[in-house]
Design brief:
The chain is built from 17 helices and 14 strands. By secondary structure, the protein is of the alpha/beta class. The protein is rod-shaped, with a radius of gyration of 39 Å.
């Protein structure tokens, strides 16, 4: 309650301001009665002091000391029964009260100080009760909005209408969590303002370009992460109703965000565990891998490029836990950033590295440029926000999801190769080393067509016979067409090898003494092995 509201109480009719009228906007939180000359030592902020001025009747000019001290303590005002012991307030005290904007109120004779204190307290309590009732109703309204599944955007809309001000919700990286209310770039706007404190509190600042004042209220996203509710336009500290409404909104928003964050972490953990098990070879069945990958929007028929990132250098951390937390925070930042901009990049974490699986669609004419553009952007964001640098190793293009296991190894190898150059913030691409890696760059349908063409005759043979003949043919070519060595490796008689090779030549309609034929078949057999991996 403010001083000017106190003057409107019907039961206190007769009270009027005789000095310091400019300070009637002061907040009244409590009321006290002066019954001793040492009251100065017991003054409190926002306190309304009433007195008969008995202790000042012989020394009225000592009121100046009381007025000065009350103004310094932030008291609400001073009420005096001027017609009781003090005929009038000295002119110098009135001038001082006007200068310090401390209201001096003349109290009516017919009311005792006890009645004034009781009536003031009762009014303060009634107002607090009304505010509490409003707080409960507001909290219920916001909670109902979330429980009905209307979402944070609807809650913010209701809050904006209640306080008659635009509102915006941003995360700990200053990115809008909900639909932006305007074109303000909060990252640039808040650049240089330190909001990453252990226990953040509301912060007010002015936007010079927009000529607006903003206040940031912290909201919990998780146990150690805070986002911010931004209120555009000024909020007076004495506007308790607006502040209480915002407080209830931040409580409900915090609960909603923490719940949402916990669900996201659970989903991420499941998705990450699947991919790590896939890389480790724990999942052996191709059907299981393809089926589970599809649950996480990782289609086997898509083409992918894998990038593995790691922070450069050995950063100093007082403890291993702190290092782990800081790395996790940085990786979470990258993952959140990617989730907001594209669904074509899948993010995973493994130890001190992050894994980015790029989905390469047909409309991407230059996959290398597309990938490098995204990685450069990540490096810039990490540098700006964390002051760190991160490097990436990049694999060659693979034709389906099952091949991403080899792509991951390529990316790790490329990252290690780049590290040897002692550079920072590099993007190192893997260079193909053998024929199998080269064949992985060819579209899977083309490989299948080549295989069918090269070994077309075997499609008419029985499965068991085909397997036996192809196994013999493969070993025969790998041993440089040595009959005895082939028989030795297959644990069969050399005549059996001769028979099978002749059978293969009959099916193929070609001689295995022709170098072009043997090269064609060797490639086809390598492609077959590629299918089986």
């Amino acid at each position: 309650m403010k001083m000017d509201e106190l003057l409107t109480i019907p039961q206190l009719t007769g009270m009027h301001v005789i000095a310091g009228e400019a300070g009637t906007e002061r907040e009244v939180a409590s009321v006290n009665m002066m019954d001793a000359p040492d009251i100065i030592h017991f003054l409190k902020e926002n306190e309304f002091l009433v007195t008969t001025a008995y202790h000042f009747k012989d020394h009225p000019h000592t009121l100046s000391e009381l007025v000065t001290t009350m103004a310094e303590q932030g008291c609400a005002g001073l009420g005096i029964k001027t017609k009781r012991f003090l005929n009038e307030v000295p002119e110098e005290v009135i001038r001082l009260a006007n200068k310090l904007t401390l209201p001096i109120i003349e109290l009516p004779l017919e009311l005792s100080l006890g009645e004034i204190v009781n009536l003031t307290f009762q009014t303060i309590l009634d107002k607090k009760a009304a505010e509490l009732q409003l707080v409960l109703e507001t909290h219920k309204k916001f909670t109902t909005t979330i429980m009905q599944g209307k979402g944070l955007q609807s809650l913010l809309h209701d809050l904006s209408k209640m306080i008659n001000r635009p509102v915006q919700l941003i995360d700990q990286h200053y990115n809008p969590i909900t639909q932006p209310i305007n074109s303000l770039d909060f990252y640039k706007l808040l650049d240089g303002i330190n909001l990453q404190t252990t226990k953040p509190s509301p912060i007010s600042f002015s936007i010079i370009a927009a000529k607006e004042e903003c206040t940031l209220f912290p909201v919990h996203i998780s146990d150690k992460k805070y986002g911010f509710l931004i209120i555009i336009e000024r909020i007076d500290k004495t506007d308790q109703l607006t502040l209480l409404t915002i407080e209830q909104a931040t409580n409900v928003i915090s609960f909603s965000l923490m719940k949402e964050n916990a669900l996201k972490l659970h989903d991420r953990r499941i998705r990450n565990d699947f991919f790590l098990h896939f890389l480790d070879g724990t999942l052996s069945s191709q059907e299981e891998i393809i089926g589970r990958a599809a649950e996480f929007s990782l289609q086997n028929h898509q083409m992918y490029v894998c990038a593995v990132g790691k922070l450069d250098g050995e950063l100093y951390h007082p403890t291993y836990i702190q290092q782990h937390e800081d790395t996790d925070e940085l990786f979470d930042f990258i993952e959140s950033d990617l989730a907001k901009t594209t669904s074509l990049i899948h993010f995973f974490k493994k130890g001190e590295t992050c894994i980015l699986l790029f989905t390469v669609q047909e409309n991407i004419t230059n996959p290398s440029a597309y990938l490098e553009s995204n990685l450069h952007e990540i490096q810039e964001r990490v540098s700006k926000f964390f002051g760190n640098t991160i490097s990436f190793g990049v694999s060659t293009l693979c034709q389906n999801f099952l091949q991403t296991k080899d792509a991951y190894k390529e990316a790790v190898d490329a990252l290690s190769q780049g590290k040897l150059s002692k550079k920072k913030a590099y993007i190192q691409t893997y260079h193909t080393k053998d024929i199998m890696e080269l064949m992985r760059q060819i579209p899977i349908e083309d490989l299948k067509n080549y295989y069918s063409f090269a070994l077309s005759g075997f499609s008419d043979t029985k499965i068991a016979e085909e397997q036996s003949l192809l196994e013999t043919l493969s070993v025969y070519l790998e041993t440089h067409c040595q009959i005895s060595e082939t028989a030795k490796r297959l644990f069969v008689h050399r005549n059996t090898v001769v028979y099978r090779i002749e059978k293969c030549e009959e099916i193929l309609g070609k001689s295995l003494k022709d170098p072009d034929t043997t090269l064609q078949i060797r490639l086809a057999l390598r492609i077959k092995a590629l299918f089986e991996n």
